[in-house]
Design brief:
The chain is of the alpha/beta class and 142 residues long. The chain is built from six helices and five strands. The protein has a single domain, classed as HUPs (Rossmann fold, 3-Layer(aba) Sandwich), CATH 3.40.50.620. Helix content is 44%, strand content 23%. α4 runs parallel beside α6.
Length: 142
């Protein structure tokens, strides 16, 4: 049924994977799918803000994220599940949508915080943006 499953994680927020990861792992074990785990380092949004950070910030953030993601997968995903870790830098929802296309993903598993009207009005959620634009099925775990 599924060959490639994408799990999105925010390494700074365990709630982004604590419930979603077991669902993704269980689905991979049931279907024999490969688990792709993606952590996206968000952009600053404005060049003015970016100017306050060191020139090597992105390189250092990517290296740290790769290390932390590898440790998370080693601790939380059984060795029987084939996994591949991915890190990207950019707008979170855009990077997830790009990953869906480039990795041949069949299903995305992601967490979403409980609805908050003010937050949704001001910034929206990445899960909402992905659900509305994705060409594949999305399992949103709360």
């Amino acid at each position: 049924m599924y060959n490639s499953i994408l799990l999105t994680v925010d390494l700074s927020d365990p709630a982004s994977w604590q419930r979603a990861m077991p669902e993704a792992v269980k689905t991979c074990q049931t279907t024999g799918a490969k688990l792709h785990v993606l952590a996206v380092i968000p952009t600053f949004g404005m060049p003015l803000v970016e100017g306050f950070f060191p020139d090597d910030f992105q390189k250092n953030a990517m290296a740290k994220t790769k290390t932390e993601l590898a440790a998370l997968l080693k601790a939380e995903v059984p060795s029987s599940v084939t996994t591949e870790a991915h890190t990207r830098y950019g707008k979170v929802h855009e990077e997830i949508l790009t990953a869906i296309k480039t990795m041949g993903i069949d299903l995305v598993v992601m967490a979403s915080p409980p609805p908050d009207r003010l937050r949704d009005f001001l910034v929206g959620s990445n899960a909402d943006r992905v659900v509305r634009r994705s060409t594949v099925s999305i399992l949103v775990v709360r």
